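Example 475, ligand magnesium ion.
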Amino acid sequence: MKILEDKIFRTISEEAEKAGTRAFVIGGFVRDYFLQRPCNDIDIVVEGSGIGLAEKVAEVMKTRVSVFRNFGTAMIRKNGIEIEFVGARKESYRRESRKPIVENGTLEDDQNRRDFTINAMAFSLQKENYGCLIDPFGGIKDLQKGIIRTPLDPDTTYSDDPLRMIRAIRFATQLGFSILEESFDAIIRNRERISILSKERITDELHKIIMSGHPSTGFELLDKAGLLEMIMPQLTNLKGVETMEGKGHKDNFSHSLKVLDNLAEKSDNLWLRWAALLHDIGKPATKKFEPGTGWTFHSHDYVGSKMIPALFKQLRLPANEKMKYVQKLVQLHLRPISLVQEEVTDSAIRRLLFDAGNDIDDLMLLCEADITSKNESIVRKHRKNFALVREKLITVEEKDRIRNFNPPVTGEMIMQTFDIQPGPAIGKIKEIIKNSILDGIIPNEYEAAYSMMLELGKEMGLEKKATCITQLPND
Ligand code: ATP
Ligand code: MG
């Protein structure tokens, strides 16, 4: 137990002995130690006062301690590692809340209240058996076999705190483990219990599932357990394949999960991963069968992006620039595909660059992840097409600098030049100049835009002020 030779554990051990209490390392740290996963938060459980021990340890180590009296916990931060101290607890639950009645307890009581056998293991910090593993439920065996199992009766464990059902699925996804069958059956039986959870806690777990290496596993398990339709019916609505006149469409649920997995291989951007998961949520609302043509989902990009604010609200996700980013990517996800034809104009490329701005690279990653055909030659063809789009984007961007485009003539300049007050004429002139640049009618330069402004003003019956001060941008 090399890590336990660390000074910090020795100090905790010595201070616990002085205080006449016993202390243990417990939970995630012990699990991750055996899995050789990095772990930056260490939980210490004390048969006595967690806060008291933390204060003593902090004094010896000359660090600060943060105390959370309401929770009976205290935290020390040292070299980027967070050590949380808590008194051992015995818990009993009431039906209507996941907040238990808490009493002081022993290590054994504390291990009994843990969610899974692999999370209930402890290392002793007592001198006489320093570094010994205390594993009453066979957590080590479950770790080796890759099994998620509750220490006590799963129906009680899940019903007491239904968040554990989602945690089970999250750990199965993160670690590539399987949930013991009888445990999974208990999740199915207790699924309605998630109604007592706060949306924020559920969403935190969803984030962790989305950020794992193979996130589809988590969503498939949530679905199988009957939890997903309660958490995000917009996703389960994507399920199913309908056939008419011998024509079917793809199952948009499994497709969306595949897109998410594909994207997860390329990017750790949480919100881009959300966009991948949600890119087709407008499909059920726009699905039509058109005789002769087959299934269509016209405007599902637009409809999908309009569904995002309500979905974010429902999941207590922020209504900020992250949401706008997801909306934008959902709205634009079909645009690059429309640029694959040979004869696509620079104008169409400029418009996409303008609409996507700095998110253009993320959009291309999403589009490439959106290729989920099982037919290798189709996949190759699409990949090649997107490579061509990428080339065109680079060529046009180098030439015209559209990504961070701000039209070179401002409203302020228009008002000064023609000596007019704010009004519709200004927006009109600006809009025409912007479109002319994007359409390549004039170059993206100040001189050309300024002359165009004068011409437009003239057409609109505006007169240029005699002595007008014009300022070049960036002057
Ligand atoms: P991670 O930090 O990756 O989320 P973790 O196992 O450390 O994993 P935490 O939420 O930090 O998870 O919790 C620390 C420990 O507390 C867990 O290992 C587990 O023993 C216990 N625990 C956390 N949440 C619950 C819960 N809802 N029910 C029972 N025990 C829990
Ligand atoms: Mg943790």
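Summary: The pocket of adenosine-5'-triphosphate (ligand 1) is lined by residues 27-28, 41, 43, 113-115, 119-120, 161, 163-164 (CB under 6 Å).
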